[in-house]
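Exercise: predict the fold of this chain.
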Amino acid sequence: MKKIIFLVLLMVMVIPAGTVIAKQMSVAYSGAPGAEEDLAAKQFEKWIKERTKGQIEVKLFGSEQLGKEVDVVSGLQLGSVDMSIMGTTIHEQAAPKYNIWSAYYIFGSRDEVASVLNGPIGQKVNAEMLKNKGIRMIGYGLRGPRNLTSNRPIKDPGDAKGLKIRIPLQPIYVESWKELGAQPVAIAYGELYMALKQGVVDSQENPLSYIYTPAFYEVQKYVNVTEHQRAFFSYVVSEKFFQGLTPDLQKVIIQTGKDITQFHNNLQNQMESQWKQKLIDKGMVFVASDQAAFRKRLADIPNKFTAKWEPGLYLEIQKEIKEYQAKKVR
């Protein structure tokens, strides 16, 4: 016992007076270097260092270094991962009754997405995540709309028949592409380039940034502008980490969450046209797909899943969108 006390005193003596011992904060995300969430994560790291005066040291783990999103959700719950920037996997795992976001064509613009997420529905989702998994939402960062890439043009729903398409393995995705006559296949995003190159699948769908950064332009010819889904990134923090902070540091995390998602949204808006031009410069051809025809063909898909969602959720979202549109007209 005396030896342990001696060692502790020795450690105290060798730490200079006034030295701040930083609390480590791990941030996990899937994006490769240069992707929007990677750039936002780096800005978050900078702000946290400045605003906490070095009391929190952020460590970034991009490109799925800490595992797939489903693994990161478990890490957030257990407290082995402190924060993440991720897609709708967090909703699927932590708030399944509100995981409507994968449905196609429920939003017509980025502003509609932001309006719903930052309104009453978004507040209910945030409370559900905290209650179910001990995961705190600190902000939503918009993504560019998802578009379909392929090696033949897909102008209308009939062109999708027989298409072998890689999709994230969510039932509503599968049901949607089957309705279009395509053959959906589940392949990890990190393995998708080789799957496209080897012909395991002949198409995939993602926002433009997720088409450019892994160089899909080397193995795909067309970007079919379907804009079938408008999704977002969730900025989430482990409640175990959050409750281990002083009240002042908690306030910094909450405020920086608000600021970084605004930064993210502005960045995404600025970069969308740049991603398009970069893909064109790499030889990809943009096809003006008939979005109205795709929307009509898939209009009934959400109704097949309403039993899995919070009662009335789909109708509530439609109502909020109409109210938002009415305000814009005034």
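Check your answer against the key: The domain at 146-229+279-309 is CATH 3.40.190.170 (D-Maltodextrin-Binding Protein; domain 2).
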